[in-house]
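The passage that follows is intended for readers who have already worked through the single-chain material. We present the inputs for a multi-component assembly, then the predicted structure in tokenized form, and finally a short commentary. You are encouraged to pause after the input and sketch how you expect the pieces to fit together before reading on.
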Amino acid sequence: MASPINLETLEHLAALARLELEPEEKEKLLKDLERILENVSELQKIDLQKESGSLGAIKPFLTDVFRKDGERENTNQGAGKESFPETQKGFLKVPPVFDNGN
Amino acid sequence: MAIDLEKLTLARFARGLRSGEFSAQEITREYLGRIREKDGDIRAYLNVREEQAIKDAEKADAEKDRNSSPLLGAPIAVKDNMLLKGEITTAGSKILADYKASYDAYAVRRLKDAGTAILGKTNLDEFAMGSSTENSGFYVTRNPHDTERVPGGSSGGSAAAVAADMALSALGSDTGGSIRQPAGLCGVAGLKPTYGAVSRSGLIAMASSLDQIGTFGKTAQDTAILFQAIRGADPMDATSAGAPEEGAYDEALLRPDLDKMKKLRIGLPQEYFETGLSPEAERTLDEVRSRFEKMGFELETVSLPHTRYALASYYVIVPAEVSANLARFDGIRYSRPADAPRNLLDLYRATRGRGFGPEVKRRIILGTFVLSSGYYDAYYETAQKVRLLVRRDFEDAFKKADVLLAPVTPGHAWKIGEKADDPLAMYMEDVFTLPVNMAGLPGLSLPSRTDAKLPIGFQLIGRRFEEPQILGLGQLYEREFAAELYD
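Having made your guess, compare it with the prediction:
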């Protein structure tokens, strides 16, 4: 089976994941992902149709947790600002969202 | 003063401190000396708290008469993916090289409350992704039994620190085996508690539905003592939970009824012994089995039929959660942004591209893929269903047995670099440990203490919140085969 991830898909995924990748990284990733996905395709061998009725009977071990709606102390709002290189009036300064023409 | 650190346990430390045999400060200085002497080779620590640890110990000595904490003054190491307020916490990643934690992780706060002396932060695979500590963004940690070999991972620093007597015990985290596997390869005890038994607040997240903080020590008893001190429900983590019967549970952790343990039914999951074990691991496990038989236990074979699918399911679910959890490292919060980006998008891409290592990128891309439209059903949803089946397997097995005896790793520690370029070979390392995380169960890894040249561990798996059973059974074994560590 051809790998579902080709170079074009990889670049799209990297863009979605906000990752800059070097050309040699892409090459290695394509190889690795092909092998990993081939391995993962083992999952398709299980007949889940057969199991689907009984899956619902497996109870989750986590339970819903509620807390009273009310005031509580905010642990660390604003903490960590001091380690940021540039701040202005309590805000973190970042580059513009859009290119500034250069 | 001649203190034999090799035979010092948390239990003995507490007694020695109370009886005035030594002070917390003396012992802390001993450990710091060991670190200076040995950590240049082993590199278990990313950061050693020389001054602060001694201050902690001094304080413990001063409080001795009015503070009854069983961990008072105990020198403990913490894996560097847990926040320690005001100090650098890197999670083994360059992207967090300068990140100063703004609060304490719940487990760390509990250690501080218990009056321990925190020796420092230990090395790990970047964001706990890996099984050898070779993926650390800073340096490789070496196995104290053979410095050419890996200590396992991702909590390789914590395991190596305890194995080399550079910490009396340590905290780690375990998502698919990251406590139990390095414990096995370094020849120490490692406990991965029930999912939710220790709050994840302040643990830098990898895969939140599986991540679990746990403990390292020389003995099962030590892992129990440390675990008891950090466990419990925490409002900051809605998935954390207390034990069904708090008082009885603590009592059973700290003072297990060993006669009761002798009546436990031990099950052997047949699939775990069928494939994947190296000859020496097979021999070791055989020996462990016959030892339990000689101790009077009847071992019954049980089946976990979906074991072969667990690994595939795990390597869909984990990357999926990783891709979401690591989205927060955007180069603005937590870390220094890359230089001179043209715009905000550039900043994100450049900081993440340069700050993350290869395994982290691999998982983020894979996770983004399995969650993407068109592939979600085939991968992520299927994996979640398989996860349920893996869990049901364990529930069925626990109808026939109270505790499962299993391998913890396929073999002993391998040479540094041997598997570094092969992610699948690395993933196979967790084949005996990750199903336990998928089912949310507690698992204990103990050194087998046979005559194998390099350590090989074995694993005891229990029902949810039955830590006292696996720890008690582990103590029975150790009292026979590591009697020098008990009084």
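Commentary: Chain A touches chain B through 55 residues (CB under 8 Å). Helices of chain A lie at 7-16, 23-40, 48-55. How closely did your sketch match?
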